[in-house]
Amino acid sequence: MGNLSKFETLKKNFLKSLPEEKFKLLEKLSNYSSCITDFIFRHTDQLDYIYSQLDKPLLGREELVKEALEIAKNTNFNQLSEKITFFKLKHFSRIIAKDIYKKHDLLELTEEYSYLADACLEAAYKASLEKAKSKYGTPIDQNTAKEAEGSVIALGKHGGLDLNYYSDIDIMYIYSEEGKTDKGISNREFFFEVFRNVTQILIRRNIEGQAWIVDLDLRPEGSKGMIAYSLPAIEFYYWTHGRTWERHMLIKARHAAGSKKVSQEFMDIIKPFVYRRSTGAEVFEEIVEIKKLIEENANKKVQNGIDIKKSKGGIREIEFTIQVFQLLYGGKIPELQERRTIKALKKLIEFEIIDSRSGKLLEEAYYFFRKLEHLLQIKNCVQTQKFYFKDADEYARKMGFEDTEQFLQKLNDYREKVNQIFENLTPQAEVQLTPLQKFILTKQYEEEAIEYLSSLGFKKPEWALKIFKNIFFSKLYIELSDNSKEIFFEFIPTLEEHLKNFPDREDFLLNFSKMLINGRMLWVFVSALEQNQKLVEFMLNIAKLSDYISDLMSKDRELLDWAFGIEEVPQTKEDFQKELEIIKEKEFIDRLKKLKKIVEVLVSLRYLSKIDQNDAYSRLKETNEALSNLADSILEQLYNYFEGKEFAIYGLGKLGSREMNIGSDLDLIFVFKDEKSKYQFLKIPQQIVNALTSYSKEGILYNLDLRLRPFGKAGELSPQLSFYENYFKKEARVWERLAWTKARFITGDLSVKQEMDRLIEDFLFSTEINREFINEAIDMRFRLEGLARETPEEIDIKLGKGGTADIEFLIQIYSLKNKKRLTNILEGVELFKKELIDDYLFLREVETRLRMIKGIGLSKIYRNSPFLYRVAHSFKMEPEQLWEKIINTKKEIREIFLREMKILRES
Predict the structure, then answer these.
(1) Is the dihedral of CA 70, 71, 77, 80 positive or negative?
(2) pLDDT tens digits for range 280-314
(3) What distance lies between CA 652 and its chain's CA centroid?
(4) Which tens digit of pLDDT belongs to each residue from 809-857?
């Protein structure tokens, strides 16, 4: 029973009830198409309808639309997808049956099928329009005060009335003019809602399957464009940004649904754009390039088969041959302005642009290939053009050949002769484009481009293609000069190599896009391609290595110029002063902010450039020192700028320990000489704080953390020396002694420094480290651990159990116990606990790389976060490997911490 086995098993009585003619019809349909078999299995009554229509005329557009609109009128909106899908399958089955029984010509059947798509669009549009009106009111044209209208434009084979039996429909949504509805909603919002619903009705999967696959990528600006455009916007787009491929595409544009008046206005707009009276040499060259893309694509083999659309001598070569001549001569010969492929071919023969012998061959081949294409597609209801030689017997029979060899000979003969005609179409042009370039140039070959991006290593090639569209279909790219466009287009293979060789290619591509498009650096990059290869490499490295730096560059293009113009990374106060004098910002604070950005960019790049080197100590120390020196320098600059006197600034935390990182805030302490000084210069510390934390177009200098000052946030900002002397003796808690081991003079009055250093020394070392102190320190450490709130899926590298805080507490206690004034934790680990140095460096590097991604003070990492992958990649590990290493490292640190605390407590 073959393909009827489902009926034989589950609906045997139905089969037995069928007359011989209907049984044969069902048998043929099931032999040709699985989805039609399933449709009839669900709705056995439809076999009678299909049979009754075999000898009747085709319905035509009017009848199909009438039936579809009646369905829309009598169906609940939420059920419309299912009803329209049923309607589509019903008439699809009718058309296939007519084809099998050879009741009509191929052109008649594809026209009927195209009109079937129109009918579905008309029903979906009518229902969506009425729903929107009831909710938002009637849209009003702002120019005429009449009702604004929308329409659906058919493109591609749908527009040419040559729609494949299993194909998506290329369409464009348009509306007449901007304005507002009588309820105050903009026409844009109104028609967006209408057309979103139209799309959803057609693409929503339901019990009957899916009505149509809708492709909107041929609209202005491609997939990144709006869902619908007003006629004025359409006109502006095509005449300012329209390219040859769009002329090529719009040959087949026609009215599909909605307002015929709006569609006609659209056709009036695009006609002079598509068909020009004179074609310049540059346009002809573009046409040649498109032809060469097809030739290159033809060389791609289908294993044990051929692609009858894309291969040499296939459907695409026939269509292209015809459409090229239409573009070249359609402006001078209006008769060539024909949407249908075969009708256009006959016009070309009539005007002797194609000789009659070649024209006849192309027509025969087109019919042959399209029939085979339909048979391939309806078999399993998929959009394919791949013919495999193992199936030659089956398709020879279905094509009406008694002999398989004869069928294959005819297939090869047509391919060879079509290709000969195609080869002689234009002069030869040496061009070698990648599949991605092909897509960008022609907006075709999307499937091939996606496959190619997948071969480059993209896990989500569709997403990657979208990013490329965002770059190459952007307004910035369109506005480049023709030469610049070509230079950037030619760079694509080089960019592909970079992407292929960089495992974290998704983030690289996203950052690259942000810099070029969001940061409006496209013209800078293209200029560099022409003149400065080092700058090209520099920009690519930024995109590869850091979201944070890419974001900075995307927001401030001048950073690129500054950073690239500096040979060495500035690290000292002298270096910073030198760069500061060059910066041209008017406001002094903004100059400091610009300096900070530049230094952070360069320091980050320096660090990231060394991540593959086996020298974590020097890499981390160089980064920490440069950023700490930068903070010192900025504080000194502010002290001098505001004419600071008789007070000093100290740093605690990471600033004090000279372990500043990307995203680190500043733990600051202000101390005045005496009450008189405080009274006289009290405003200056507050001015410094405001300068550090105020926002401007350059952003912010630093976030401040004043919790470590006496009495925390509630405490006084800038007490005098005598206050600290009393506080240290009477008020300070155990944990503050630990925190103040990191205290370091940054800038200010040296006499204040001298006295403050004496007070700090006395505070730190005058009291012995006893058991009670150790217990309180441990208790404080555990309280911080509790605040971290770690879970099995979340690790706090700093405050969590076994985090770097364990090591910091341990080193600080050893510093106090040994009366060793040592602010830097890394140096303390070297001195007191060398066995912890690798663990400390590892966790600090994880934290540094985590912060480098986004440029903020992150110390938590999540198991399911993409950040874990990126950090893991930087260590050349899998995410789970890194996760386990962090866990094991923290476990080891905690064991040592508890052991050492026990020893200290008992000593």
Answers:
(1) negative
(2) 433 445 565 666 666 566 556 677 888 888 888 89
(3) 41
(4) 999 999 999 998 888 999 999 999 999 999 999 999 999 988 888 777 7
Identify the H or E element spanning 306.
strand 305-307
Report whether 218 contacts 170 (CB < 8 A).
yes
Q: Is 229 helix (H, G, I), strand (E, B) or coil?
A: strand
Q: Are 256 and 152 in contact (CB under 8 A)?
A: yes
- CA-CA-CA-CA torsion sign (174, 176, 182, 186): positive
The 744-748 sheet, strands edge to edge:
667-672, 647-652, 744-748
Distance set, CA 88 to CA 34, 71, 114, 371 (Å)? 16, 12, 11, 20
**What 3-state class would DSSP assign to 790?**
coil
Q: How confident is residue 561, by pLDDT bands cut at 50, 70 and 90? A: low
The span from the CA of 840 to the CA of 496, in Å, is 38
Q: What is the DSSP string of 268-293?
A: HHHHHHHS-SS--HHHHHHHHHHHHH
502 HSE (CA, 13 A, CB side):
19
User: Per this entry, what is the length of the chain?
Assistant: 907
Cα–Cα distance for residue pair 288/365, rounded to 1 Å = 23
Contacts of 328 (CB under 8 A, 6+ apart): 279, 284, 287
User: Quick one: how far is CA 459 from the chain centroid?
Assistant: 12
* Cβ contact 170:274 at 8 Å: no
- The DSSP result for 762-783, as a single string, is HHHHSS---HHHHHHHHHHHHH
Cα angle: 879, vertex 883, 888; to 5 degrees: 150
- Which phi and psi (to 5°) does residue 33 adopt? -145, 125
Q: Report pLDDT digits (tens) over 677-711.
A: 998 998 999 999 999 999 888 888 998 887 777 77
Question: Which residue(s) pair with 794 in the sheet?
Answer: 791, 862
The alpha carbon torsion through 849, 853, 856, 862 (nearest 10 deg) reads -80
pTM of the predicted model as reported, rounded to 2 decimal places: 0.54
CA torsion 824→827→829→835, rounded to 10°?
Answer: 150
Give the phi and the psi of residue 546 in degrees, each rounded to 5.
-160, 125
Distance CA 271, CA 331 (A): 9
Query: Is there a contact between 61 and 119 (Cβ–Cβ < 8 Å)?
Result: yes
Sequence-ordered list of residues with C-beta below 8 angstroms from that of 723, at least 6 positions apart, any chain: 710, 716
Please report, rounded to a whole number, the percentage of residues in the chain having pLDDT higher than 90.
56
Q: What Rg value do the Cα atoms of the chain yield, rounded?
A: 37
Residue with tokens 């000069």: 481
Query: Which tens digits make up the pLDDT trace of 859-871?
Result: 888 888 878 877 8
* pLDDT at 430 > cutoff 60: no
**196-234 pLDDT, tens digit each:** 999 999 999 999 999 999 999 999 988 888 999 999 899
DSSP summary character for residue 795: E
Torsion of CA 203, 205, 210, 214, to 10 degrees: 10
Cβ atoms within 10 A of the Cβ of 172, count? 26
- 33: alpha, beta or left, given left = phi > 0 and alpha = psi -120 to 50? beta
Is 691 within 8 Å of 769 (Cβ atoms)?
no
The closest of 858, 843, 308 to 867, measured between CA atoms, is 858
Alpha carbon distance 191, 204 (integer Å): 19
* Contact between residue 844 and residue 850 where contact means Cβ atoms under 8 Å apart: no
Tokens of 693: 């934390």
pLDDT score recorded for residue 456:
95
Distance CA 305, CA 47 (A): 35
Question: Whole-angstrom Cα distance, residue 293 to residue 290?
Answer: 5
Between 104-113, 652-661, 784-793, 863-872, the lowest mean confidence (pLDDT) is in: 863-872
Which residue do the tokens 């911080």 mark? 784
Q: What are phi and psi of 667, to 5 degrees?
A: -95, 105
